[in-house]
């Protein structure tokens, strides 16, 4: 437990690269067909204190007549560092690469082809707009069919008023933005770059109450399809929220705009089929749970009619498809435009699925092994192009692994091939637990729901002693801990701790009923679920030490960690919480997602809501602060000074309550970090302090 050794171990587990995106190109030769797979990877480097991105290429040789089998995989080309790239896109015909790159405070748009850099424009110097959007919410870069135009989204110029005096008068006017992790993203605008003459023009006609993003060219490149988020009467935080009112719009180059999806819904991820006939997109409800089971819609561009391809799944059958919970990859269509491929949560797993548009049937494409025999607990689709799928697979003891396989014919299984094995695997044992609440903990409105957990532990025990257990709780609450690589879990297990990652009722992957069951029951149902999972693990595994238990988590996971040490003060010996919700009543006025503060306690939200004594009492009653006087376990708090989702004053509130009672508490303050505490140096600091805290108190 030497700090330098702990940091060294964390550098090892967190520094393992993960593929984040992929591209496929194809070439037909006389005897064979070759595919080039280009993957982009992300890798943390503790020395630099930053994340590096690099690309790597593989050439696959397939039979010319039967492209469903790969004959040979040639050795990969050397890794190439990718510097400053914000967004990039490959053109549809000639394979040119467009890149928006940040360098020396300027944003450049570059066009690359086989002969090197073909064109470079300094977008900052043109002064047509502010910064180009590179985030997953709004960001996009789309080639026209003729390859003469590019489409992207950027911040509207602030100084577009007439006259100096108007600018001076307005320079201190408050400007709303889209909340946590979207600071200074306020008024997105769609721009078209004409590559022939280098001109940049704003697309006119977007409704004034809508913020556009995720734009793409419609077939023929005479109009644009985009997602528009309604921002009146004011903006609410968008990150990790699939419940914001939005619609799919079609805008032609003359400024005529029409809404082509339903109203009062939430939509995202429009994806155009290769034949140009159909757009698929995700659709959900507005307000309520901030993340939810979504339906997959298909929009026929000729008739302008939408139909449902996949319904919301309320109660999945055992082992069956459990619904769609996450964004579609940029390319998700089969070459014949008849099938859509995507990844989604399923109980304690992340699985890969294909839906057939003719039959509406869903097929799992991951290894056809029973759950308990699976090597990989998580399959994440990066892309499918030319019917070749590129996926990232991992499990709690196997770091991210790059694999490829062709879409199968009906009734066939996929033949998967590994392109890149991880540098190392870890000698850890993992298992999945299914947990059924006892009758007294059943939710009467949503009866019969169960939940799960993933238990990871060292394969070999030190000195045959029992293993201390760290209970790790995810945030959200509507998210998931799939059985995938997690550097915190792997690091703790390498240091001799067992880790129990709990997917309490309300987690994604268990159906919409499970998500809705938590509404109005935070602080009770989720707390009891975590406690029930811990008791189940202790009963099922005699190597775990019931006297050495700790609990850790961030955001809603931190909320639950603090609840558990308050509600079960004799049970846990230590607690570490990152940006926890401590008092939901005092958080009401400071969070970027004020709607969730109401929804979580079971109250309806509307924009014109004025807090009532009853609402504030309900929020306070469900908060960990009400149990602060009972807390005996030492508490480590880690707070981001720039957190817009859960104000750092939440953690400070518990810190003062514990200090005033002489309870052991330590607080780490990261002034430049936000809600996710995602900076590389912050994450290393949090891991080191958490490990030493657990070691000291267990």
From TrEMBL:
All residue ranges annotated as the Acylamino-acid-releasing enzyme N-terminal domain in the record: 36-425
Q: Where in the cell is it found?
A: Cytoplasm
Q: Which UniProt keywords apply?
A: Cytoplasm, Hydrolase
Q: What class of enzyme is it?
A: hydrolase
- Name a single GO cellular component: cytoplasm
E.C. code: 3.4.19.1
GO MF, one example: serine-type endopeptidase activity
Q: Which reaction does it catalyse?
A: Cleavage of an N-acetyl or N-formyl amino acid from the N-terminus of a polypeptide
Biological process GO annotation list?
proteolysis
Every Peptidase S9 prolyl oligopeptidase catalytic domain range: 489-698
| UniProt subunit comment | Homotetramer.
Q: Which family does it belong to?
A: Belongs to the peptidase S9C family.
The name this protein carries in UniProt is: Acylamino-acid-releasing enzyme
Protein's organism: Champsocephalus gunnari (Mackerel icefish)
């Amino acid at each position: 437990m030497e700090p330098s050794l702990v940091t060294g171990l964390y550098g090892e587990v967190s520094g393992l690269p993960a593929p984040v995106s992929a591209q496929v190109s194809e070439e037909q030769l006389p005897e064979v067909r070759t595919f080039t797979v280009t993957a982009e990877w992300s890798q943390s480097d503790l020395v630099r204190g930053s994340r590096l991105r690099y690309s790597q290429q593989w050439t696959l040789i397939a039979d010319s007549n039967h492209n469903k089998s790969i004959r040979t995989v040639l050795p990969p080309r050397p890794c190439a560092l990718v510097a400053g790239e914000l967004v990039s896109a490959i053109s549809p015909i000639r394979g040119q690469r467009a890149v928006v790159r940040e360098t020396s405070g300027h944003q450049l748009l570059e066009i690359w082809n086989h002969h090197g850099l073909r064109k470079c424009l300094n977008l900052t110097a043109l002064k047509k707009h502010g910064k180009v959007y590179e985030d997953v919410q709004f960001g996009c870069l789309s080639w026209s069919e003729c390859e003469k135009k590019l489409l992207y989204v950027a911040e509207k110029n602030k100084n577009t008023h007439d006259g100096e005096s108007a600018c001076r008068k307005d320079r201190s006017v408050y400007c709303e933005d889209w909340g946590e992790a979207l600071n200074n993203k306020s008024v997105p605008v769609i721009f078209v770059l004409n590559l022939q003459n280098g001109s940049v023009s704003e697309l006119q006609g977007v409704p004034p109450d809508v913020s556009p993003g995720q734009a793409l060219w419609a077939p023929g490149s005479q109009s644009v399809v985009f997602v528009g988020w309604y921002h009146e009467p004011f903006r609410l935080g968008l990150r990790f929220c699939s419940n914001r009112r939005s619609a799919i719009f079609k805008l032609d180059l003359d400024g005529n705009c029409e809404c082509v999806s339903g109203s009062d819904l939430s939509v995202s991820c429009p994806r155009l089929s290769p034949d140009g006939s159909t757009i698929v997109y995700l659709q959900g409800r507005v307000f309520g749970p901030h993340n939810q089971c979504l339906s997959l819609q298909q929009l026929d561009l000729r008739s302008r009619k939408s139909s449902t391809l996949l319904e919301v799944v309320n109660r999945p059958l055992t082992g069956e498809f459990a619904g769609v919970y996450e964004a579609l990859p940029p390319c998700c269509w089969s070459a014949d435009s008849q099938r859509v491929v995507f990844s989604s949560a399923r109980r304690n797993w992340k699985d890969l699925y294909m839906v057939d548009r003719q039959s509406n049937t869903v097929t799992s494409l991951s290894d056809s092994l029973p759950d308990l025999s699976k090597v990989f607990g998580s399959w994440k689709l990066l892309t499918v192009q030319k019917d070749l799928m590129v996926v990232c697979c991992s499990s709690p003891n196997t770091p991210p692994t790059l694999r490829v396989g062709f879409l199968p014919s009906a009734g066939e299984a996929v033949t998967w091939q590994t392109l890149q094995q991880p540098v190392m695997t870890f000698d850890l044992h993992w298992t999945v637990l299914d947990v059924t609440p006892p009758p007294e903990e059943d939710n009467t409105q949503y009866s019969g729901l169960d939940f799960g957990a993933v238990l990871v532990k060292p394969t070999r025990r030190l000195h045959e002693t029992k293993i201390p257990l760290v209970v790790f709780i995810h945030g959200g609450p509507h998210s998931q801990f799939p059985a995938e690589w997690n550097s915190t879990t792997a690091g703790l297990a390498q240091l001799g701790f067992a880790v129990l990652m709990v997917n309490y009722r309300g987690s994604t992957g268990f159906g919409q009923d499970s998500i809705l069951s938590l509404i109005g029951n935070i602080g009770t149902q989720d707390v009891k679920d975590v406690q029930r999972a811990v008791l189940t693990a202790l009963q099922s595994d005699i190597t775990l030490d019931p006297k050495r238990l700790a609990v850790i988590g961030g955001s809603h996971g931190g909320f639950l960690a603090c609840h558990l040490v308050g509600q079960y003060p004799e049970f846990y010996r230590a607690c570490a919480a990152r940006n926890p919700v401590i008092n939901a009543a005092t958080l009401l006025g400071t969070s970027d997602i004020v709607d969730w503060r109401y929804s979580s306690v079971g109250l309806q939200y509307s924009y014109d809501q004025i807090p009532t004594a009853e609402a504030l009492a309900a929020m306070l009653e469900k908060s960990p602060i009400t149990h602060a006087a009972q807390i005996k376990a030492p508490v480590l708090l880690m707070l981001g000074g720039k957190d817009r989702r859960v104000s750092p004053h939440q953690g400070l509130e518990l810190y003062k309550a514990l200090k005033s009672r002489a309870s052991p508490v330590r607080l780490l303050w990261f002034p430049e970090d936000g809600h996710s505490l995602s900076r590389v140096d912050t994450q290393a600091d949090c891991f080191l302090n958490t490990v030493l805290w657990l070691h000291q108190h267990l």
